[in-house]
Amino acid sequence: MNRFFLILFFIPFSLFAKFYPGSITLYDGVKKNGFLEIPHNYNDDHIRFRLEKNGKTENFEIDYVRSFEIVNDRNTAENYIPLYLGNPDSKGDIYIAKKKSWVKIIKEGKISIYSATLPFLPDNASRGIGYYIKRQNEHHGLYLGVGKKGFNFCSDFNTLKNILKVYFEKDCPALFDLIISADLQNNGLGQIVELYEQNCGAK
Length: 203
What we know:
This protein is an alpha+beta fold. The chain has 2 domains: 9-75, SH3 type barrels (Roll), CATH 2.30.30.100; 81-203, no CATH class. Helices cover 20% and strands 37% of the residues. Strands 6-8-9-10-11 form a 5-stranded mixed barrel. The termini are far apart.
């Protein structure tokens, strides 16, 4: 075996982990400031936390976490919560997971948009971002689509609109006609929340 790979094999994985400054809020209301590692996959069952950047690592299980916030390399705050997610099964029906997943908040309001880091895109070529929408008065996110890492828009616009039409045909049928591709590409998926706030939902 190549000597370089032998060396890598014996180096603890934790040395490669990146911890960001931030805070974590637990379900008992306790808030801890320190450094956090963003979970690698949306279905990881815990998050790693340190009081000091190179200090001892604590693991907090997802069911005990209310939310966490990190400051990324661009000095921008990112907020995350645990959420039950609904994904399509092989028949096209939505299956609500029994375990929570980590999601990044894109925009919250009467409805909310979240993203989750997926292990692979459907083509198995690369990691990607899955987008989810939480309807008013519900406690789970519903699948919207995927995009490659770094993009904030699901590339298949017609599919996205059809999915939204199914999700909101009773609550907000006007939403389908209000969404314009160019606006979403310029302003991101958060604009769906704004359109809903302005035109739909209980006051």
